[in-house]
Write a structure and sequence with these properties.
With about 375 residues, the chain is of the alpha+beta class. The protein contains twelve helices and 16 strands.
């Protein structure tokens, strides 16, 4: 059993694996209710993660005068790299199992009172150094500005795995009263309009259909998977744990208006099915299933996202967030936002030094080869 209390004035940091879920929920919501958290840090996502996978959790929290101002949930796992590196990892909001982590946690972080965001989290991370059962702390898919704050404050921290992200500022567009399609480049508008004309000539009028009940939403989630698997060899739909998690999430959050599934059709033919998470009037595009019929002039992704972006504008949402990962359609339809990066905090270990040296040499020798 782990139960440490560390004075990190002005904070008292507690680290424990003796978790009272009821108390955790109360503390989490006490912060969430007055902070603008991304969907992946809301209690709805976290609770689904805890109940779906039942991970063994290490809770790290910072307090001031008995008030909780920051919370982080870690798991301990072991990673093997290059056949010689064995690393015991503390992972924030992940478990270290690729199948269970395939749910794509993004905007990862501690949750914290905004007045204590940097200082309390740094105190929590420094307090973790008192534990001896880890070699690395992994904070994956964190917004780059936050990651750089941690890198600057915590010894042994460096940034890895940058993922570009893209978004549309719906609030700004609504203030300008500009239809979404009009802000796009002439070429993108042409592709959207040409695709629309071909779809309607070939199949019939384009229409948008929203899941209106939980089971209908789950049916659309599964239908999207048919197209998703066809497009992606590593689709989460090949993973039963991924499917079960999202079934649980949809059942828990649909009636709260926190998820939406939308089908775009041309006549009776499905063009696309899109799955969104919603928090604080921000729309997070999670995945889509697109129907490609072999006609290169048809752009189902561009058509579908142009329609759903305008729909969420009309609903007075603030942000349409494509999140991490490069895709051409994101470049065409959104603006570049902060990268999502991973933070790796390492204790001083000889093998880590050799690993860094090997990585450096790998980058150097290909250059020398080219210069011969």
């Amino acid at each position: 059993m782990i139960d440490h209390s560390i004075d990190a004035s002005p904070y008292q940091v507690k680290i424990t694996d003796d978790i009272n879920i009821t108390q955790l929920k109360e503390d989490w919501l006490s912060i969430e209710h007055h902070e603008n958290l991304p969907f992946f840090l809301t209690w709805d996502w976290i609770e689904c993660w805890l109940t779906s996978y039942e991970p063994r959790i290490l809770l790290v929290q910072a307090m001031i005068e008995e008030s909780v101002v920051s919370l982080g949930l870690f798991t301990l796992s072991t990673e093997y790299r290059h056949k010689i590196v064995e690393s015991r990892q503390l992972r924030l909001n992940q478990v270290g199992d690729p199948l269970q982590d395939q749910i794509w946690m993004e905007y990862n972080d501690f949750i914290a009172d905004s007045d204590h965001k940097s200082n309390a989290v740094n105190a929590c991370l420094k307090a973790l150094f008192s534990l001896t059962n880890w070699d690395e702390i992994v904070l994956s898919m964190m917004a780059q500005p936050r990651a750089k704050e941690i890198q600057k404050a915590i010894p042994g921290a460096y940034l890895t795995t940058a993922n570009p992200s893209y978004r549309v500022d719906l609030e700004k567009l609504n203030q300008q009263t500009t239809p979404y399609l009009q802000i796009l480049s002439a070429n993108t508008r042409y592709q959207v309009n040409r695709s629309t004309r071909i779809y309607e000539k070939q199949y019939g009028k384009i229409s948008m259909h929203h899941a209106s009940a939980v089971e209908q939403a789950i049916d659309l989630f599964h239908e999207a998977g048919i197209f998703h698997i066809h497009r992606w060899d590593d689709s989460g739909y090949n993973n039963p744990q991924f499917i079960r998690f999202h079934e649980n999430l949809i059942r828990a959050t649909f009636d709260k208006g926190l998820v939406q599934l939308i089908k775009i059709k041309a006549g009776n033919t499905t063009i696309a099915i899109l799955y969104f998470h919603i928090a604080n009037k921000n729309v997070y595009f999670y995945l889509h299933g697109l129907h490609y019929d072999g006609n290169s002039k048809l752009k189902p992704g561009l058509v579908a996202h142009a329609l759903t972006t305008q729909y969420f504008m009309d609903q007075n949402m603030y942000l349409y967030d494509y999140m991490g990962g490069y895709s051409q359609y994101k470049v065409q339809l959104g603006e570049r936002a902060n990268d999502l990066v991973s933070v790796l905090i390492q204790k001083p270990r000889l093998l880590f030094g050799l690993e860094h040296l090997g990585r450096w040499l790998k980058n150097i020798f290909p250059l020398k080869t080219r210069l011969r």
